[in-house]
Amino acid sequence: MKQLVGLFFLMSLMTSCNGVKDVTAHNTADGTSLLEGNWELEYIVSAPSLEALYSKQIPEMRTEVGKNTISGQDGCNRYSGTFQSQGNRFQIDPASMISTKMFCEGGGGQAFTGTLGRVDSYVITDGKLELKSGAEVVLRFHRK
After folding, report:
1. What is the pLDDT of residue 106?
2. Digit-coded pLDDT (tens) for 17-58
3. Average pLDDT, integer, range 102-112
4. 8 sits in which H/E element
């Protein structure tokens, strides 16, 4: 009988843990995600400086973790879509991405959205959001 009660307890514990989300220190003290909010680009791997790609407007990104949505502007066009995030994993759903289609000189918008599509993880350190492709930081943002 003791074995049966122990087995029941163990099964109950395992079942109750299945619904717990992996928050792995990616939340603030009040439970909101550190990823949530408005971000402004400060680094992109494909350019020696932001001014080289974005003479008029620096790209911005807004993440809404509860809805798994991302939106912003890429230096010229507005974009929106969805993403998946668990722990430090972060991936844009390319099929969900939509964008305005204004003519833009310089290719900065394509550089930004192309790089965003390569992202597979993130790290937030000292208020900076670093989006990574493998081990390489490809985009860095600060809070706006």
Report:
1. 81
2. 333 333 334 555 544 589 999 999 999 998 888 988 998 899
3. 89
4. helix 2-17
Residue 129 vs residues 32, 36, 137, 143: alpha-carbon distances, Å: 15, 10, 10, 8
Extract long-range pairs of 118-124: CB within 8 Å, 24+ residues apart.
119/90, 119/91, 119/92, 120/89, 120/90, 120/91, 121/88, 121/89, 121/90, 122/35, 122/85, 122/88, 122/90, 123/88, 124/26, 124/34, 124/35
Please compute Rg for the chain using Cα positions. 19
Q: Indicate yes or no: pTM above 0.85.
A: no
Tell me the CA distances in angstroms from 28 to 25, 32, 58, one per residue in order. Answer: 8, 5, 27
* Burial classification of residue 109, based on how many CB atoms lie within 10 Å of its CB (0-12 exposed, 13-18 middle, 19 or more buried): buried
If pLDDT is split at 50, 70 and 90, which confidence band does 104 have?
Answer: confident
Cβ atoms within 10 Å of 114's Cβ, excluding its own: 13
Q: Assign residue 59 a region: left if phi > 0, alpha if psi is -120 to 50, beta otherwise?
A: beta
DSSP assigned state of 123 = E
